[in-house]
Amino acid sequence: MTRTSLPFPDGFLWGASTAAHQIEGNNVNSDWWRKEHDPAANIAEPSLDACDSYHRWEQDMDLLAELGFTDYRFSVEWARIEPVPGTFSHAETAHYRRMVDGALARGLRPMVTLHHFTVPQWFEDLGGWTADGAADLFARYVEHCAPIIGKDVRHVCTINEPNMIAVMAGLAKTGDQGFPPAGLPTPDEETTHAVIAAHHAAVKAVRAIDPDIQVGWTIANQVYQALPGAEDVTAAYRYPREDVFIEAARGDDWIGVQSYTRTKIGADGPIPAPEDAERTLTQWEYYPAAVGHALRHTADVAGPGMPLIVTENGIATADDARRVDYYTGALEAVSAALEDGVNIHGYLAWSALDNYEWGSYKPTFGLIAVDPVTFGRTAKPSAVWLGEMGRTRQLPRAER
Fold it and tell me: What EC numbers are recorded for this enzyme (predicted)?
């Protein structure tokens, strides 16, 4: 093995990410909890206790810090903070502030996400993001997060993957039962405009709490690759599913880039990966270089000066050696983009823990395994490898 120094600048974020509903357990007031227990939704299994991280967050942070990570992205559950409209829980607010303080005490810089796919049931009942006054309701919730983020939190994400929120809204409106073999369904245009408005309102609310907070949002980048002659088709397909959300973030302090695989586009639209392509547990094509393409495309759309942070990147696999291989290829792509002048400020892996992947516990993305009965945490070799890389700033690679 050879070691190559990584061109990470001073202050580069090096960590892992999680989402509240996927790890906390028993988020009984969220829309997803209701969906998981609705037979008509055809959800494979409910989240139930998840990883019990609501009670065991200190163990999670201890492990991440011991492994060598310097940053931890976690989310605040809106349905806990505001379980009924206009009523805010001081106890839950204090809980998330303890998490911020706990991260800081362990040398982990907290990145706080204010919305990661779930909303309170009452918000969904009003009509969700497209309801009258939805942006104001979200901004009001953000304002009440001031005790959580108002001190010593440098990076705040307003909304995770708004393009996927719009895609899921499109599915719901059309009555379609699932995703096509390749590519994404058509996003709902009304929801697209609504989440952009909510984001802008939230950015304003965060900056009112503290103008020094670096605020942005994260976008799911599908790495649309045009086959010869399909460049115009690809651009038209990509714009409503991705670029419109990047453009909406041009006034932000940073953009989160989240990428896992690629989608090839031909003259007639998305093309499934070949039958013999290696696939992950989510059935996505194994393609570690995706994150490099995602970073470069985001920089092209947002402008060369926009700071970018890889806020999610990883692989669902039961083979941890393959996880190391994936991260090796991904980090080679990130390093190459940095060397070419792309303004990258951090890399956060998905996910810190094996967790609830929106309907199933089978896709294991985690650097840390979680026993479903005892909730014992065990760092995988990939976690040790990735954490050590943060200390050494060197990427081990096999000689070619």
Answer: 3.2.1.-
